[in-house]
Amino acid sequence: MEQILGQDWTITPAGGSTGEAYYAQRDDKRLFLKRNSSPFLAVLSAEGIVPKLVWTKRMENGDVITAQQWLEGRELSPEEVKHPRVAQLLSKIHHSSELLDLLMRMGKKPLEPEALLQELKSQEQELSFVNTQIEVHQCLRFLDNQLPYVQNQRKVVCHCDMNHNNWLLTTAGQLYLIDWDNAMVADPAMDLGMILHWYIPEEEWEDWLETYGVELHEDLLNRMHWYIIAQTISFIQWHKSRLEEKEAARWLEDLKRLMLKVGMINN
């Protein structure tokens, strides 16, 4: 990074799982730097979804460094995700034809539910040596049985990680959704299922979705259940593959709660 900015900049790691993000500061100038960030960052910036893109530079080794405004702010608390502004921004993203067109031009293929289910089944076979749970197998059968009801749906740009720490609220009051490395073209129920199941009390789903711009009907409810179960299985498998049994067990408890909700098991 120093060879791009010069020796008079102070550069510090910004954390995160990839280790590819940095803060840079010189006097009163501050930037957020990232190596090999999402190629459609410029469109996200132009649409006001992420902080302003300042510049992009390609290094000799082929890496691409992006610099964005470093804004004072904080992540949303879990409680704050219920705010109508979150629903409005997510609706803007899901209805953006510019984002969708760019992702498709980049070669992103729409994520079909049958492909996702096949990947989960393959992962489960690979992890068969690691104390797999009966609940995971029950849920895979459930996903298989429900597959016809989630096929052939409209696809949009999905962020695919609705964790509250990806929502940035600046001191100036601007709300952003950051960290787009896992974005996909998929059923919007993928994002909606995550955010509703994790953060919104069920009795408030109808009002939250009204702010987002849709009605809570049975078809959407079933699709959200399908995707949140699939994603929870994926989290379990990911932690098991890394031998992180404590985290895998935590996600398994979430899976059991989901099974109760959809009636797979009795109280």
TrEMBL record:
Database matches in Gene3D superfamilies: 3.90.1200.10
Transferase among keywords: yes
Span of domain Aminoglycoside phosphotransferase: 14-224
GO molecular function: transferase activity
InterPro entries: Aminoglycoside_PTrfase, CcrZ_PhaseVar_Mediator, Kinase-like_dom_sf
One Pfam entry name: APH
Recorded superkingdom: Bacteria
Keyword entries, A-Z: Transferase
Annotated PANTHER family: CELL CYCLE REGULATOR CCRZ, PHOSPHOTRANSFERASE YTMP-RELATED
Name of the molecule in the record: Phosphotransferase
Organism: Pontibacillus marinus BH030004 = DSM 16465
